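User: Design a sequence. Structure:
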């Protein structure tokens, strides 16, 4: 690990993580994409995109609920005044152990921002989860969401049957996913009375995208790979 770290550090400073500010020659590989993981905070393209997208929201005084909080993002949000964390499975050191599709302990119109990055694909009833997110958000509150999506997939592929872990991994890329989303995810949010704005690498321009590695430098041709990450800001109206 130290050898890899030395090879990527410290010069030339061609890329920078916009979350932890590490900079160096390149990011590290993970099992789906090469040169996308920050060696310092382990952010990947979706985390850096999400962080950049939040520049359009003043979150300092917002009441935030963050599902399955990633360490790299959690450290940023913990600086705000009203930040809470939640998960159903890995709930140790979090504020709530709760099912995102049944948040009965949370009042209507309670939060300004709900963040769930790559959570909904793990949820049996994602439509119910989206309804619940809408319910707990204040009017003009924003859900900040990401899901794994096929780069050119129009319609979401879902299977709720009792498949084996191996079968599910072959179909969706990992054993604990119920679906692989298509570009119809935006419409799914709009159907639940959200106004939706989408952010992706090209939103921020070529130079920023390349410097912060907002999309993989090397495209993975596996049809289950998500090379083109999108961040959805779904505003309740």
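Assistant: Done.
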């Amino acid at each position: 690990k130290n050898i890899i770290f030395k090879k990527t550090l410290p010069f030339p400073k061609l890329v920078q993580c916009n979350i932890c500010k590490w900079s160096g020659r390149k990011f590290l590989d993970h099992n789906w994409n090469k040169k996308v993981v920050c060696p310092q905070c382990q952010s990947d393209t979706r985390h850096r995109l999400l962080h950049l997208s939040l520049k359009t929201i003043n979150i300092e005084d917002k009441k935030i609920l963050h599902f399955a909080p990633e360490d790299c993002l959690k450290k940023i949000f913990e600086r705000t005044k009203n930040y809470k964390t939640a998960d159903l499975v890995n709930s140790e050191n979090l504020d709530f152990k709760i099912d995102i599709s049944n948040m009965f302990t949370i009042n209507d119109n309670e939060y300004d921002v709900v963040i769930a990055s790559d959570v909904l694909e793990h949820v049996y009833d994602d439509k119910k989860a989206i309804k619940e997110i809408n319910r707990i958000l204040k009017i003009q509150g924003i859900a900040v969401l990401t899901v794994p999506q096929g780069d050119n997939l129009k319609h979401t592929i879902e299977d709720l049957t009792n498949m084996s872990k191996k079968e599910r991994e072959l179909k969706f890329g990992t054993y604990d996913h119920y679906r692989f989303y298509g570009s119809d995810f935006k419409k799914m949010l709009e159907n639940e009375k959200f106004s939706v704005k989408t952010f992706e690498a090209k939103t921020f321009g070529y130079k920023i995208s390349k410097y912060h590695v907002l999309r993989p430098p090397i495209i993975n041709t596996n049809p289950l790979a998500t090379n083109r990450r999108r961040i959805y800001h779904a505003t309740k109206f």
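Residues 126-136 form the longest helix (11 residues). The first strand starts at residue 15 and ends at 16.
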